[in-house]
Amino acid sequence: MSAFPQPFTALAAPLIRDNVDTDMIIPSREMRTTGRDGLAEGMFAPWRYTDADARIENPDFVLNQPEYRDAKLLLASANFGCGSSREHAVWALAEFGIKAIIAESFAPIFRGNCVRNFILPIALPRDVVEHFAACEVTIDLEAQTVTSDGATHSFDIEAEAKQMLAHGLDAIDLTLTQAGAIQEWLNADKPARPWVYLEHSR
Amino acid sequence: MARTLFDKIWDAHTVAKAQGGSSLIAIDRVFLHERTGAAALNRMAEMGRKVLDPARVFAVMDHIVDTRIGRGDGTLMQGGEGFITETRAACKAAGITLFDVNDRDQGIVHVISPEQGIVLPGLTLVAPDSHTCTQGAFGALAWGIGSSEAEHAMVTGTLRLERPKTMRVRFDGGLGFGVTAKDMILTVIARHGAGGGAGHVVEFAGDAVKALDMEARMTLCNMATEFSAMTGIIAPDAKTFEYLTARPYAPADFSDPHWQTLHSDTGASFDREIIIDAASIAPMVSWGTSPEHTIAIDQKVPEGPARAHDYMGLAAGDALAGTSLDAAFIGSCTNSRISDLRRAAAILEGRRIASSIKKALVVPGSLGVKRQAEAEGLDKIFEAAGFEWRMSGCSLCFYAGGEGFPECSRTISSTNRNFEGRQGPGIRTHIASPETVAASAIAGAIADPREYARSREAAA
Questions:
Q1: CB-CB: which of A19, A36, A160 is closest to B160?
Q2: Which domains can be identified in chain A, with CATH numbers?
Q3: Looking at the complex, does the CB of residue B250 fall below 8 Å from at least one CB of chain A?
């Protein structure tokens, strides 16, 4: 796993549909092992293939078109990644090579999963997103800007997510630096809420 | 300063401000299942990390387990057995409690967590499952996360979070005859959109919510994720404490003054409020491929995305009622509890499903629900009506590549997602309450449950 690459310029692959769900990004039947690998091939299977079992490609699907077969930047619409919490959706996108997604909005669990896997989720108004379709787009994470065709748009991202993406930080390692504070909190909480702390009973 | 229930739980669980502006929030319970949990446990082991407090982490086999009577580890889904055996081994290695395939308490995670008293008011509970919001019905802050976050919660006992906004959805007045919690949440999503709750924790309140029993409250909170909310929550009351008393993992009593503090203070302010007249809600059925594509059963299909109309084979202006069906499903974390089965059975008793229905399943939410239903004779009612009676699990709420509905079926389903392909390639899903599923299965077409319930009442 690696940080969000800088500088970043890529051709934007448009998949501008509302409410694209994680079942569509990676159908349950394409999740064949407990691992995180081997998922890219099943990504968007119902749209990407006319026959998913035989992997017969649908030439109309955006990621099957020659210029987008190695797409690194995906454009999406409202509520992208809604539905199941399956992180497999993000693992599939990452394995395919997607580094950033620009959408009108994201479903919250999916968005969190993106950050944990160093895919940059950028929310911008719909007309801006639509304008990027099939364009070369440059993303500057540090400046929090997206530039295309001479026009620059700013985007919001939480300071911490930005740090993690920029430096490829592992959230668990980061939190473990505060293990002392966590232990102190637990020591104080145990007598106050004893019902929380269970004995192993099964 | 008046605080919301969410504020109280959040503040009480704030361990520290994390570097970078987020908060480190203590997590009281983690629940895993075999579909996404093994990935978290395996990664944790690979990284040489350990569960901080194994007694507060639970796992269950529910997502891809076979639901046919006499099941073992084998699954109709190819490769499914690997998820089960790997999860079992990983749970053992991590020292966490597992409700295994044929454990007497096995069931869907959001059905068994309350049954066992694992969720409690005021707790934080997370699971790598989007429908974890179901458990907010008990006044817990309970939400779905990814596998990486699950690993983080297990290893550190915390999550790093940005504080969400708050929303109150208040249902004033009472529900009409034959209208249920499922219809309430579908109404919220239909009126305010599948993205309408984004960034918010949604507290459900008002007279119509207070009147719901605990199982109906779970149905209401269950689909907060379909509203794109972080979660839903309902303040605990006497019904909540009565439900939880004497459950295996619950405290012996709820006499501690703490329990009485878990409500939004009078005058607490929410970032957003939605008010709905409960009497305005009718039985709801989805027509399209997002839960926001839902209408009252007597309405006509509205204009929507062309893809949704094409996939569902329904044009704007078509009546939903009377649309022919091929299959029916009663189950899922939304509607598989004993009260759901009782209401569906009350409509089905003495009736047969239409011969055009090629597959009809009832999948109880837990083996405990199954035993209770059998003690009441509900299984016999379902079977006599033409439904198959199953072991518990998530079953055909989603298609995992094993068991499926007949090709190109139009199904009526008590589940939560009508996504394109969710129940199988080409399967057209209409989501509705269990009583609407039962009535529609009898009619062989989408049908208003009130007519079937009324005729029953008239006969009695």
A1: A160
A2: 8-168 (3.20.19.10)
A3: yes
